C-alpha cells in the first residue's frame, strides 16, 4: 500500500490546486492489518488460545463475517503466523483508514518504508 499524506491548497479564482506532500510511505502487505485487531490476536496466540478463543475475539470485534467465515478465518490464523499490523481501520458505517501510526513507525518497523 502506498500512502500519500498531503496538504491541499485551492485557488478558486484560477481554478487550480496545489498539493504539498507531507509524507509518502510504502506499507508491505504483511503490515496492512489493523493494529488493535492483530495485537489482540497475537496476545491470544501467546497465551495458547484455541480456535474458540479466536472466533470469540473476531465476533467481539464485529468484523464483517458470518459464523462460517469467522470459523474459517480462525483456522487460517492458527495455521499461519501473524505479523503485527500498523493501520487503524474503522468499520463503523464505512471502512476508514487512519495512518498516524504508520507515519510514526516508518523506517522503524520492517515493512513500513518512508519513501521521501
Automatic annotation (TrEMBL):
Origin species: Candidatus Contendobacter odensis Run_B_J11
Assigned EC number: 3.1.21.4
Enzyme category, top tier: hydrolase
Keyword Hydrolase: yes
Gene Ontology MF annotations: type II site-specific deoxyribonuclease activity
Keywords assigned by UniProt, alphabetized: Hydrolase
Hydrolase in keyword set: yes
The name this protein goes by in its record: Type-2 restriction enzyme NspV
